[in-house]
Amino acid sequence: MTLHEVHTSSLIVHVKPQYLAAISQQILAIPNTEIPATSEEGKIIVVLETENQGYVTDAIDKINNLDHVLITFLVYHHIEHYDTHAEGKL
């Protein structure tokens, strides 16, 4: 039996509002990121779907270290375990 994980996480990134578009593009350049919403006040919701927890913390560090990012924080993290051999079986 081979078990795999899928980590689904959401982050809120607060940026200086005048840099919202530029930072959003830089975040989307990071693999496995999606931005479902932003606000004029400079808040960006980021969703990550990854295979391990280390990627989540690495992505937070990368985003938090971008110029003009004020803070990045984790809001939600869920781990789903699945057996690749069981897929398609009843």
From TrEMBL:
The keyword Cytoplasm applies. Keywords: Chaperone, Cytoplasm. Pfam families: NapD. One of its GO terms (molecular function) is signal sequence binding. It is found in: Cytoplasm. Its main location: cytoplasm. One of its GO terms (cellular component) is cytoplasm. This is Chaperone NapD. It comes from Photobacterium phosphoreum. The lineage of its organism: Bacteria, Pseudomonadati, Pseudomonadota, Gammaproteobacteria, Vibrionales.
